[in-house]
Design brief:
Blueprint (H helix, E strand, L loop, with lengths): L3 H23 L2 E8 H4 L7 E4 L11 H14 L5 H10 L3 E4 L5 E2 L11 E7 L5 E5 L16 H24 L3 E2 H10 L9 H20 L5 H10 L5 H13 L11 E5 L2 E5 L7 E4 L26 H4 L4 H19 L1
Parallel strand pairs: 2-3, 4-6
Antiparallel strand pairs: 1-5, 1-7, 5-6, 8-9, 9-10
Helix pairs in contact: 5-7, 5-8, 6-7, 7-8
Length: 338
Amino acid sequence: MVTSTAVRSEDRIDAANAESFARLNAADPWVVDVQAAREVIPGYTDDLVLTSGAPMAWKEYVGGQREALIGGALFEGLASTREEAIAGFESGAIRIGACHDYGAVGSLAGIYTASMPVFVVENREHGNIGFCNFYEGKEPRRLNYGCYDQGVHDRLVHVNTVLAPVVGEAIRRSGGIALKPLIARALRMGDEVHSRNAAASLLFNRDILPAILDMVQEGHQGVADAMVHLSENDYFFLRLSMAAAKASADAMVVPGLTLVSAMAFSRRGFAISWPVLGDRWFEGPPPIHEGKLFAGHIEDEITWMGGESPITETIGLGGFAQARARRCRTIREARLTS
């Protein structure tokens, strides 16, 4: 027998979920600026390195995610050697934070340090802000892959000193760029703005083009290098779609909500943020697959690095958009043949 109390509880849950979904649909993310993490992320301090997934203690980070944290500390100058970085993390002199706790999301290992530039994405409907750092480029050795050497260092410096200043200035001159209609158009062009971003990246480049042309006429430094980077890297837009998704998903959270508001990987496994549990993350072990490897490689070379790009799936993009597109195609083909 269903009691009246149970019915009222279900009604409250349904109402909260309906409000949450309405807030998600109404979200209006705009990229409005690019600034160093320490300048715009609330509570960010110079000794802090952010990484992907639910919060963990230093000793729990292994593999590529651990190497990426060490690389971040070296890049930021928090340590001069690998050993100093490890000692700093062990003592707490270098702090580790979870990206989501700071309104941010990170691709793969998701490393943020204080000087790294981040996209500032404002949800103009609800007033909250999401952040995501920059795509390092298509080179296979990247910090967010758990690699750090002179080449990685130099590319990160290029992002900090050339790419980010140009893109940030173009965004500000444009008065911000609305991401929701851009993403909607990219979806119709074949993107799903997680693993496919070619159309979205081109549309973003088009939107900043008037500002870029003005900057060229004014002799602004670094514009040519920045535009070459943008034209060569289809994945550039992923960081904007992630920040847009974060700003949209955070606005979903209302009292009584039972929907998932974030998804993330760390080396420990997969986690979801379920507001009904408060600040806790609900975690499970990673799925283990037996991969087919090229000759000369072994399973021991495979390592988890984490990742928070599933924030796109959290709001229905990415893999969910692909699945829906396939379903629509199946329905359309069935109607044509019936």
